[in-house]
Amino acid sequence: MDLAEFDYELPEDLIAQGPLPERDASRLLVLPRRSGPVDHRVVRELPGLLAPGDVLVVNDARVIPARLHGRKEGTGGKVELLLVEPLGGADWLALGQASKPLREGGRVEVLGSRIEIAQVREGGEVVVRLPLEGDALWRFLDEAGELPLPPYIRHAPGPTDRDRYQTIFARERGAIAAPTAGLHFTPDLIERLRAQGVALAPITLHVGPGTFLPVRAQRIEDHRMHLERYTIPRETMDALRGRRVLAVGTTSLRALETAAQTGELSGETGLFVYPGFRFRVVDRLLTNFHLPRSTLLMLVSAFAGKDRILRAYRHAIEKRYRFFSYGDAMLIER
Questions:
Q1: CA 231, 232, 236: angle at the middle one, nearest 5?
Q2: Residues near 97 by Cβ (< 8 Å), separated by ≥ 6?
Q3: 152 burial level (CB within 10 Å; 0-12, 13-18, 19+)
Q4: Is the pLDDT at 49 greater than 90, yes or no?
């Protein structure tokens, strides 16, 4: 399939620049997966769209303040590092930007700490050696790091983002982007879902570059996803048997479908879902609206059909839905 088949025009003013005052006040476009008209709801109406016995699978990954701004030791040149994933010990894979190329053995000063460039790879990737590990590292990042908001959000991260760019499920530190479908949930909404007999089951997928890096291959089958770490508790898989499964977000879906394919409940996934993919676990999907030409748009196109998804997106644009991370949501039903 050609990359251009997953393009659409989006007015810039529909890109949400911040969250609504109330998480569950986002609009919800309900799309039957095979046929039928769309419906317009609000996320807090979700209990009325589910049935007792349904299972909601949520991603409990927590976004870390992974963007570091520093200066090269000696020259003082500006450097930006985006920590991507731990490699063991004090080493992390990172994406690096600087006015002049980073070199192996060089050091970057960040808030009085020195970070060593241990290896330079292709595509802007570097391996950095951090001076801290464990809880000391998390304290350092909380003080020195910046929340890595997506580039289409124009404001600098502030106190509101520290709270609202995390889901209420966020527990396992390590993601560099939020599993945004989960941003719409509140404790009250969860309580009402549970009172109705809807079960909640967690997974962890640490969102990394694989989720948001652009597709550069003209033929989408040639694209390769960056690996992302995932863990699925045995209790979660057991809870899904014989029940309708609603994946909250594309990350939950990818973790579940990876496990169904491989039989592995933890590891790394490079699963690329595009039209033609056979779903084995997920029956329904709650997700935000995604960027043109993105792997996420390809995933939802696989779930409901490319033409049907693009028509729904055009309808959402006409109705002035808010798009992307802080935007509105879509429920794709079986």
A1: 160
A2: 79, 80, 81, 124
A3: middle
A4: yes
Q: Is the distance from CB of 81 to CB of 96 less than 8 angstroms?
A: yes
**Which two structure tokens, joined as six digits, stand for 233?**
């508790």
Whether 84 and 174 have beta carbons less than 8 Å apart is answered as no
- In one-letter notation, the amino acid at residue 255 is A
pLDDT band at 334 (very low <50, low <70, confident <90, very high): confident
- Which residues, at least 6 apart from 246, have a Cβ–Cβ distance to it below 8 Å? 50, 54, 55, 56, 57, 282, 283, 284, 285, 286
- Other beta carbons less than 10 A from residue 296's beta carbon: 22
Residue 230 pLDDT greater than 90, yes or no: yes
Mean pLDDT of the residues in the chain:
95
Measured between alpha carbons, how far is 258 from 236 in angstroms, rounded to an integer? Answer: 14
Give the C-alpha separation, 52 to 204, whole Å.
Answer: 24
Q: Which H helix or E strand runs over 125?
A: strand 125-129
Distance (Å) of CA 88 to CA 132, 217, 293: 12, 31, 34
> What does the alpha-carbon distance between residue 19 and residue 182 come to, in Å, rounded to a whole number?
13
In this model, does residue 214 exceed pLDDT 90? no
Is the pTM value of this prediction over 0.90? yes
Extract the tokens encoding 78: 């500006």
- Which pLDDT value is given to residue 36? 87
Distance, in Å, from the CA atom of 292 to the CA atom of 74, rounded to the nearest integer, reads 42
- Asked if 324 contacts 23 with a C-beta cutoff of 8 angstroms, the reply is no
Q: Encode pLDDT of 293-311 as tens digits.
A: 999 999 999 999 999 999 9
* Least reliable range by pLDDT among 11-20, 134-143, 264-273: 134-143
Lookup result for tokens 């200066």: 71
Partners of residue 288 on adjacent β-strands: 329
Task: Please state the length of the chain.
Answer: 334
199 within 8 A of 239, measured Cβ to Cβ: yes
